[in-house]
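Entry:
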Amino acid sequence: MRLTIVSFLLLASLTGFGSAADQPTSIRAAYELTKAQVDDDFDESGMLRSTPRNDLPQLLRRQWSLIGNWSATYLNEHPSASAKELTASISDLDPDLGVDVAALPEHAFVISTTKNEIGNVSIVANYGGTYWPPWTIADTSTLDPILASWNERALAPKSEATPTYASKLGVLPSTSDGKARFYVEGAYMQWMGATIGGQLSIWSWDGRTASLLLAKRYWFMIDSQDMTQVIDGRLVLHTKEDFKTFFSCGSCEEKKAVWTVLINPTGVTDLGSKAVDPELDVIDELFYRLEMRASAVNIASPRVVSALAAEIPDRRVEAKKSKSANLFLSAISEATVRRSGAISTVRLALDDYGPYTFTVRRTNGKFFITDVATTQ
């Protein structure tokens, strides 16, 4: 539903918010009642109960709407408020919420609120001298199926979507025609594990509504110290990806990659991801080719192939039966890369293989494994 400023003002009167002076008190009372109903469906650890109430999605939507109304009312009373002050106001309404607010040009704010790994992102903007909440990410599922996870129906029985919350908001450079842009890093609800499913969406804002520019899923390690940055017109995210033949534990960072999105004056371009340690990729490819009994002459010396061939099992039959492109051998227990000029020394230990020390040479951007030794 797209809310107009007229319907917003009408809604405020019909829901009993009354005069401007009474509105904060009325909104708070309605919010506390709704919050208590929502909270009943979560245990003390914040986990959703096995049999939540059927109207939980509707209650969440009402909670989100009340946060939008509270924010608009606060800004109408404090039109020069900063993002920090708006954050404090929303936290005053509900100290249990995780709140992030980013200021957009032309008197608009992007707001994310989160509790129990369920969240919403909305915009409160000034139009005609009055702040109102014209947009929420919960209404955008028709733009891309990925965005269905933001809708309150993700909590409905038999829903195929996983609820999502914003782990970070950020403002991007405006377009050449003056439209503001921002990004939302979403994380999917997940009660266990350190490797988390993530979602990036990038939006432009024309003063009335937000338009989707990009939406894409990725994985990340929740304890990673690498932060998303905007550098020289590029949005840079740190992700976790898969190898073909070895895998890492949920609390391990391998395979580390950097995903870049170019923010140009008229749009955005996905530049894809690159491995932080591409030497590990070429070793992974060698293991895969040995599994498939395929030639590796362009990535490894005959000595390396001969040294490893007897250890790596033939998995061609298994590959034909499998729908996956991956043929995992074992988990990574250690992976370190040390570089000196064009030569890299890679120590790799798998739970069931190695440890190995590989020597990898880089020539014209391509990697070639020149030597391998079994080490302790």
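Residues 296 and 305 are 7 Å apart (CA to CA).
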